[in-house]
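Notebook, bench 3.
Goal today: get a predicted structure for CCHC-type domain-containing protein from Salarias fasciatus so we can plan the truncation constructs. The sequence was checked against the plasmid map this morning, with no discrepancies at the termini. Length recorded as 933 residues. Pasting the sequence as submitted so the record is complete.
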Amino acid sequence: HVENVQLAHKHIKEKRHKKNLEKQEEAELRSLAPPTGPQLSALDAVVAATARHHGVSRDDVAARRAAAHRLDDVISARLPGCRLRLYGSSATGLALKSSDVNVDVGGAPSPLTLAVVSLLPAEFCDAASDFHAKVPAVRCRHASSGLLFTVSSGNSLACLSSDHLAALSAREPRLAPLVLAFRHWARLVHLDVPGEGGLPSYCLALMVLHFLQQREPPLLPVYLDDKVPSPRRPAAVHFLVLNVVPAPFFLYLLTGCPPPLPLQAPLCWPRPVPAPLGLLWLELLAVLRPGAPLEDSVISVRLKEPLPREAKNWPRRRLAVEDPFSLKRNVARSLNSQMVFEYLQDRLRAAYRYFGHPSPPPPGAPPPPNQEVESRESSENQEVRKPVRKSGSLENQEVTLTEKQEVRKSGSSKNQEVRKAGLSTNQEVTLTDNQEMKSAESLENHEVTLTENQEVINAESLQKQEVRKSGSLENQEVTLTENQEVSQENEETRLPESRENQEVSSENQEVNQEVQYVFDKLILTGGKPPTVVCSVCKRDGHVRADCPDDFKRAELPPLPEPSEAFLRVLDGVCTACYLELCLSPLEQQRREQILSGLERFIRKEFDDKARLCLFGSSKNGFGFRDSDLDICMTLEGHRTAEKLNCKEIIEALAKVLKKHAGLRNILPITTAKVPIVKFEHRQSGLEGDISLYNTLAQHNTRMLATYAALDPRVQLLGYTMKVFAKRCDIGDASRGSLSSYAHILLVLYFLQQRRPPVIPVLQEIYDGEAAPRRPVDGWNAFFYDDLQRLVTRRPPLRGSNRESVGALWLGLLRFYTEEFDFKEEVVSVRSRRKISSFQKEWTNKSINIEDPFDLNHNLGAGVSRKMTNFIMKALINGRRLFGTPHFPPPGTEMDYFFDSRTLTDGELAPNDRCCRVCGKIGHYMKDCPRRRR
């Protein structure tokens, strides 16, 4: 007994109801009888017909190859040495007619090749580039054939996969129909779009291939099991597929043990294994349906025995499909939503129920698993709910609704006439005397409302009866007339003696002898809409183009022209940031003393060849009074750390530092990209870290100090930017935002791009035609560092821009919110010319800031899209706040212009990627160094 509506809703939402329903449905699927001969013949026919009607034919494949060759000729004429290669389903012959044509660009001199591809002649129209996709591509359409081409680069492994599947489909004729039918099923239920949480077509093909290898008897061999020596079997994960050799063999290379061991395995059996196509289709659905151990192991076409997910360190949830050519890649990783996975399981269950039933329903009338028939007596306002249970199909029953009866369904359109042609096979509902049929919004619940004081009488009682129905609704004809009695199931139902009904019954018996299946969207989806999941934020309900976490540039309202008086207020704010937080000479000297004492202790207790030096904010001219001590340690006799075990040295150094009385909170972090030892100085309270051979960072520090010495406005703007980032909580890279070094690079880049520029590009100033070389860790760390000669070399530059620091600060906020596009451009202080994110191949990042020396280091790579939105919101609010003239009372300027609630709209910085213990990113709570300590 439930006392109120709230408790009823709580009861309904309990998970046990869903689990009980799943158990019941699983029991129903297990109780399905083995397929009969007519059923297998019908399944053979529908799978073959689906592959024939929706898959590409040999002529279609030839047309696609010809169009690809034509595109290759066009591109090679413009870019000599650049060749195109067909891959994907068009190369394997496993494509649907609506599939696009995938082409790989080989031998491309640079990423700009795709930009050239977008400039195609009229023969290839509708060219559009998508350089910000995970795989940048250019899409165009072949005018004569209408084929859609997708041109991308870096698909060498995908080309090997195409060779693999093409060789298999040429030797096993049943593979292509099964894959095409499976792809068509996935398209009907909308599970073939990876960008919306579905599965790629390559993944579907691997799932079918894995099934053909694992069934008994197998249709295709498993490549490695018979070739792997027993002692090496645990290392099977390290096998790598190299290529499909010209003979029908697979060539392998064992990379788990030196020297590499070449292997080869047959692609198919010498003699084909007999198995009807319809039976294979039914077995495929049975293997993939819920209840199968899909979440326990990895779907792998290399091994016969189950490959546990622990062997690959993959989580045990949803699907895991291994790419045989890239063993670390989960092809099904796009299925990253539990809702979509449950929808996939539900549709597989429905497909198995439909194709496994010996008498399927016709298109347009899928049988729901539980049908409820409600009859209401209008005179007494009572409800009699009668779900009808059937173990098989009931034959020769007729429902005749008379006397202005209405068949009502939720969400219906009114006054639809129901004709015999629209009813299901062997099922006829005779409607007379102004009967009305209202269309169904849901296919799960059917309500039949009976009026005119009808009584539904059962042989056992007059109470409500619940009879569940697991079979189909075929051969039903139930006659309900006014005041008629409905007998029990096994009681023989009398048929009207009219000649018309006798003819219909005979026709129904003839049709019942034939079994027919169709790939019908209404039947396979059950009327349930697919769940759409965004590939960016992993939330459902929208796609990537509409993702709220993906920053979209919006039109900002214009700002009023600032007056001279207001610019003087901004000058004072920027100057106050510097005066309040800059390092005084005394504080700088104290830091040097801490360094000297620490070096003496390490040389005495750890290694007498150790040398320490400061870098970072302590030396680059932009340090705060509470900035960390960034220390680099080197060892005499070692120019680099190539022959050193940095992890062991850091751990040993941490043990020694724990003996230092002036230090506390010693914490080695060896899992970081640069292993460090963190500590805290007791007397000053300053935190610090020691790293090994971080020599490139020392050159960065020197270059930033040189820029700071060029013009006093550089330092003032740098301090203002760091205060702004600190107040908005966007200045800590360890918490998923930007580092203070990245913010300084933002300031320098703006000053270089200003018209006229405030500072030069030091890496572009040199004598001669070529830039000098200063190799450090494999990079050129040259920059012009002679300040005295710089003044004489570039006299026009010095003094050409006379803007105040307040005007420059407002210009910086407007530059990064109005002009600069973080998605398209890269912040690079090494060059005056603009660099695109496509040119750097950083198109999948939201913010791109290039290190001036390590050109592969993107300082914005760790910034998520959610954090990017937060940073851009802070910049936009800062633009509005600093760009709207306001004169706060003297002494309150800092509080007014750097109010964090105004700059961030009162929101906190995103911390969903941070550890719950230390608040840092890069590890989970269970691996937190503080927790281990």
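Confidence is low (pLDDT under 50) at residues 229-242, 366-512. Residues 357 and 530 are 24 Å apart (CA to CA).
Flagging this for group meeting.
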